[in-house]
Design goal:
This protein is mostly helical and 113 residues long. It has helices spanning 11-50, 53-91, and strands spanning 97-99, 105-107. It is built from two helices and two strands. Helix 1 (11-50) runs antiparallel to helix 2 (53-91). It comes from Cocos nucifera (Coconut palm).
Length: 113
Amino acid sequence: MEGGTFSGVGNGAQADNKILQTFQKSFVQVQSILDQNRLLINEINQNHESKVPDNLSRNVGLIRELNSNIRRVVDLYSDLSSSFAKSMESSEGDSAGTIRSDGKAVQKRTRPG
């Protein structure tokens, strides 16, 4: 056993572990941003309800920050989607089936040769 994996397993298990760690890291980042967005939205609502001019002016910056956070979440999900697609492509040789873009599984046919 070397490097945290069994020597007979090869690089497949290490690659799968790395993919899972990447996904987990991204989901933690997304959740953190969404939590921050919840706080921003609460503050924006309070400022709006107060109708105090300074609070309403502050909302401009808060809404910009919220929009920026939303863009970051979209980018993270886009990166996750690309990573997932790449991991599925690289593991395609390991299985007899694949997933179509509509989410349905398709079995590959092998013709006798």
